Amino acid sequence: MAKSITDAIAKASGLKNRGVKIRKDIGILKGTNKPCYLIEVCFVNDSVDVALYKKNFAAICQAIAEELAKAVGKTLSPSTITSNVKDKETRTLDINSPALNNIVSDILDSKGQRETIVNCAIAEGAHKSWLDKLNDRTITNDEILALAAMSIVNVKKN
Questions:
Q1: Which H or E element spans position 11?
Q2: What confidence tens digit (pLDDT) does each residue in 119-135 have?
Q3: 121: Cβ–Cβ under 8 A, 6 or more apart, which residues?
């Protein structure tokens, strides 16, 4: 099953298929009594891998879900296949300053920075459901930036 998942991820994303590695020394894997798989999709310190991961996130999730369903003798129904993460074309920010563009890109690429923005927005009156969207990775970069702007404006009002 691990090989079929690895193959499906590579096919769906264009990421290099680095094969299956069997590791018995990782805590999360050695503490189970049933088959367990730790899926490492890409190298997060490789900009090409990260770009492919972001571009093909929904397809990667779909490929993993389909292989797991097959492993237990099921197929995904069309209603299961619909994702709340929509495929979006990669677009760049409309920022003329390369330095500012790099800063904003670094902020949006940082889980910690995104969480800080959402928490600040909630503290300034945004609904707590934004934290759920952050945690389930359905929040968009545009929403993160809008929450940051809203937080700043609300702080200035007070």
A1: helix 2-13
A2: 999 999 899 999 998 98
A3: 130, 147, 148, 150, 151
17-24: which pairs have CB atoms within 8 A and are 24 or more residues apart?
Answer: none
* DSSP tag of 60: H
Question: What is the Cβ-side half-sphere exposure of residue 62, based on CA atoms within 13 angstroms?
Answer: 18
Pick from 113, 9, 8: nearest CA to 53:
9
Burial level of 147, CB count in 10 A (0-12/13-18/19+)? buried
Burial grade of 125 (CB within 10 A; 0-12, 13-18, 19 or more): exposed
Radius of gyration from C-alpha coordinates of the chain: 19
Residues 6+ apart with CB under 8 A from 137: 57, 85
Distance CA 139, CA 148 (A): 13
Secondary element (H or E) of residue 134 = helix 129-135
**What integer pLDDT is reported at residue 9 of this predicted model?**
93
Specify the pTM.
0.50
